[in-house]
Amino acid sequence: MKAIILAAGKSSRLYPLTLDKPKCLLELEDGKTIIEHQIDIIRNLGIEDVVVVVGYLKDKIKDVLGDKVRYKEFKDFAIHNNLHTLYSIKDELKEDFLCLFSDVVLGRRLLEKCIQSREDFTLLVHNKGILEDTMRVQIRNGGIVNIGSHIPSDEGNGNFIGVAKYSKNGAKLLVEQMKKMVRKSKHDNDYYTISLIEIAKTQKISYKFVGDEPWVEIDLLKDYEKA
Asked: What are residue 41's phi and psi, to 5 degrees?
């Protein structure tokens, strides 16, 4: 299994903190950056192959991480969201892989729960109330049938926290669906999770509930303070 960290975006909602550094390089109280925390946990769980997809201020990420990881560059980060980012490295998606947004801080046990799943698609879902600033999910018959910020809060069953694990078969199906979507301009600014909505029509999109395990997705200043 490999881990892929999507770290190409500009993170404009955290300006001015992210004017001179990518969001994943914000430091926590112990002096480590968000992405260093992620990599430490990933490696602690036995995953050696870590790919970081960079774009915005890419050299600053490389300066911090050095040769700890492999890098892939997504040059169109200013005009596309992570649907295009993930599809741009489709050649990496040929085996089981873990996919993380680079702004998520979480504990080892939670990531381990995701990795241990044997399902084709496994998303980590917050189920302790619906959060406004994180994409919602709808769950029916034991699987996710809809995902995204378009879901009204009162119609959601939880929040996707930005961490998922895909099997070799799940990766193949995901790439096939993303290929169909990146060709259409209406998806220029979409998250890759929009592909899962279509896949859910024929395949089970599984999930693991976060429960009481700690996590934070950092979109706003209040999230950073919490982290």
From this structure: -70, -40
